[in-house]
């Protein structure tokens, strides 16, 4: 295992650096329980050294930290220690590192990850399991953020380390997430994000975009970093995910996984298995299919993420049918032996063309042949739907074998007819030469018009009540005054056309209920219709002198006027005396209580005013304490303001 520890050295990670200084030897000791061949390396990052990411004043470039803190100059990425087996060397070099600082919260970690991935020789990556531990307590900048510092060139994904320092941070933008994913996959690097609790949601979303990566919660001072690394490694090593390179055009691939405990998965989940321990075996079935016949051989590479092994598949495309091996060379079926008859068709010899090799390329002129392939002397050859071969149109094939071009000039097809409800020919016909041939009982350009008149039958079994015509399964009334699904209503008709006005209310009232104005002349004046009593209908509604409603409807059956009347009158119910009396009594009681409350409130207000007046007069009264005792018989005077009340002697004060 190769493990590279990439650490954020911004000022907020000061206490974390102290705990990482002894990481080398301790991690060596723990990893020895897993592998006998382990190397460790260390790198650090801060931010791009341009505004507004860091302060570019000379003083702040020397020491970006405020106060008396001694910090090193800001930098983008520095490879402190390439991969080594010497844990003590790791501790010594990490102990010499100093914290730096920047202005904004997100850090330039993506620049550092890109350099760690692509600088294989400098970092010292071997052809083994590669782990990158990314430790930070902040977010990250990504592609496009460089514009804030005037950096517009996209990251080129190349190694730019000079003296173990990334020297092009001011020139290239941050890499995008997709670019980073590509480089990490290309170099088989598995990433472990060791981040604080605050940024867990951000890096978990990033983990979902980066295959074979894990996220661990870093304590505030990185004291749990070794446990975090071991847990993340166990998680990554227990998962196997297959991926493949770019597929040739027309080639598709399907996976099916057979994992532990009999778990079988297909689709995208068929590329992976989880909870795998050392010694477990899982199987993958891979199906490759080609929709096209490619002229050259192709290669597909399939590999498990995080591993260096890969499966290379050489694809050789079989473009000839199996029946071609039994073809008849120089067959008479191919215009006197000018081709090989195989698989039911002629494969012409060199220099011959045509469906049965009947034409010679040297004997015919293309322009003469094309003239036979133009309809009505037009400009389009085979209606742009085919090729002119030896003066005959050979129509193109479509991806959907059910869709075909046809006709002498390929002018017809069976898929460009009118549609209804998104169905070709409404689903009630077939498309021939761009026209719908409708099934029985259907018509219209899209076969969307039904000839069935059943939906138009009124209750009297007439089509649209004799007031309209049935078209496409619905009634079209002869005038706007007729309404209803079967033209049975006419609310605005002044005379006979309206069901409710044609049958006079008096006739219905006298014949059905033996009442009304025509009660005595009913038989004479109201005998021009047949009356039928039925259950409630609501086409006509009238009210009699007693405020009772009666309902009836009108229809024409075989030239006979028919009126259907509801048998029962709908009369309003009489008043309920008890609730009325109770309501009146309750109202009187409530009014009395309200008047009592108002009187009581007024009395309280009056008493308070009198009491306040009494208190005020009490305060204004003054008594002379030097007045002789009443027993002596002397009188005293009470002084109020500057006036004296006569009551006896006054001592002049």
Automatic annotation (TrEMBL):
InterPro entries: EGF_integrin_1, EGF_integrin_2, Integrin_bsu, Integrin_bsu_cyt_dom, Integrin_bsu_tail, Integrin_bsu_tail_dom_sf, Integrin_bsu_VWA, Integrin_dom_sf
Alphabetized SMART domains for the sequence: INB (SM00187), Integrin_b_cyt (SM01241), Integrin_B_tail (SM01242)
Keyword list, A-Z: Calcium, Cell adhesion, Cell membrane, Disulfide bond, EGF-like domain, Glycoprotein, Integrin, Magnesium, Membrane, Metal-binding, Receptor, Repeat, Signal, Transmembrane, Transmembrane helix
Residues annotated as domain Integrin beta subunit VWA: 1-321
Domain (Integrin beta subunit cytoplasmic): residue spans on this chain: 600-641
Single GO cellular component term: integrin complex
UniProt record, GO biological process: cell adhesion mediated by integrin; cell migration; cell-cell adhesion; integrin-mediated signaling pathway
Predominant cellular place of this UniProt entry's protein: membrane
Gene Ontology molecular functions: C-X3-C chemokine binding; collagen binding involved in cell-matrix adhesion; fibronectin binding; integrin binding; laminin binding; metal ion binding; protein kinase binding
Location in the cell: Cell membrane
Recorded family membership: Belongs to the integrin beta chain family.
Name of the protein described by the UniProt record: Integrin beta
């Amino acid at each position: 295992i190769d493990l590279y520890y990439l650490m954020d050295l911004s000022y907020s990670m000061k206490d974390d650096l102290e705990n990482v200084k002894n990481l080398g030897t301790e991690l060596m000791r723990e990893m020895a329980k897993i592998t006998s061949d382990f190397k460790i390396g260390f790198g650090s990052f801060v931010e791009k050294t341009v505004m507004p990411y860091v302060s570019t004043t000379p003083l702040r470039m020397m020491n970006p930290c405020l106060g008396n803190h001694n910090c090193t100059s800001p930098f983008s990425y520095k490879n402190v220690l390439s991969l080594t087996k010497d844990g003590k060397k790791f501790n010594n070099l990490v102990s010499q590192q100093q914290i730096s600082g920047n202005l904004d919260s997100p850090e330039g970690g993506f620049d550092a990850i890109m350099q760690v991935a692509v600088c294989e020789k400098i970092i010292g990556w071997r052809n083994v399991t590669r782990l990158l531990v990314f430790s930070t307590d902040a977010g990250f900048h990504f592609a496009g953020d460089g514009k804030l510092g005037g950096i517009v060139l996209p990251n080129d994904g190349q190694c730019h380390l000079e003296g173990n320092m990334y020297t092009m941070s001011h020139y290239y933008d941050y890499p995008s997430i997709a670019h980073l994913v590509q480089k990490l996959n290309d170099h088989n690097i598995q990433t472990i994000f060791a981040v604080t609790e605050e940024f867990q949601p951000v890096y978990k979303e990033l983990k979902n975009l980066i295959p074979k990566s894990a996220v661990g919660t870093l304590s505030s001072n990185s004291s749990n970093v070794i446990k975090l690394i071991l847990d993340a490694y166990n998680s990554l090593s227990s998962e196997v995910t297959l991926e493949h390179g770019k597929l040739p055009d027309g080639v598709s691939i399907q996976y099916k996984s057979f994992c532990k405990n009999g778990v079988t998965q297909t689709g995208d989940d068929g590329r992976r298995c989880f909870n795998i321990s050392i010694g477990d075996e899982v199987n993958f079935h891979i199906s490759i299919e080609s929709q096209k016949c490619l002229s050259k051989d192709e290669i597909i590479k399939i590999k498990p993420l995080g591993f260096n092994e890969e499966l290379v598949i050489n694809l050789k495309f079989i473009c000839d049918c199996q029946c071609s091996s039994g073809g008849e060379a120089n067959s008479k079926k191919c215009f006197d032996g000018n081709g090989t008859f195989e698989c039911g068709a002629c494969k012409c010899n060199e220099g011959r063309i045509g469906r049965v090799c009947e034409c010679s390329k040297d004997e015919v002129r293309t322009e003469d042949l094309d003239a036979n392939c133009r309809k009505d002397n037009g400009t389009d050859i085979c209606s742009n739907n085919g090729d002119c071969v030896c003066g005959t149109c050979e129509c193109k094939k479509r991806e959907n074998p059910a869709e075909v071009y046809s006709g002498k000039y390929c002018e017809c097809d069976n898929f460009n007819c009118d549609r209804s409800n998104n169905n070709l020919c409404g689903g009630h016909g077939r498309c021939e030469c761009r026209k719908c041939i409708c099934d029985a009982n259907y018509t219209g350009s899209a076969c969307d018009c039904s000839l069935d008149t059943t939906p138009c039958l009124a209750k009297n079994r007439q089509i649209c009540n004799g007031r309209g015509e049935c078209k496409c399964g619905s009634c079209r009334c002869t005038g706007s005054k007729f309404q209803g699904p079967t033209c049975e209503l006419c609310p605005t008709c002044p005379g006979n056309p309206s069901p409710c006005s044609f049958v006079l209310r008096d006739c219905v009232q006298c014949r059905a209920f033996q009442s009304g104005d025509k009660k005595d002349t009913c038989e004479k004046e109201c005998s021009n219709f047949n009356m039928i009593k039925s259950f409630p209908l609501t086409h006509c509604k009238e009210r009699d002198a007693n405020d009772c409603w009666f309902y009836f409807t009108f229809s024409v059956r075989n030239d006979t006027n028919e009126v259907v009347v509801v048998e029962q009158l709908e009369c309003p119910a009489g008043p309920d005396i008890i609730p009325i009396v109770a309501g009146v009594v309750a109202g009187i009681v409530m009014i009395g209580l309200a008047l009592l409350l108002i009187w009581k409130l007024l009395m309280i207000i009056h008493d308070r005013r009198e009491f306040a007046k009494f208190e005020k007069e009490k305060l204004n009264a003054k008594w002379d304490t030097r007045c002789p005792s009443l027993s002596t018989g002397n009188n005293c005077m009470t002084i109020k303001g500057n006036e004296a009340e006569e009551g006896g002697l006054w001592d002049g004060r």
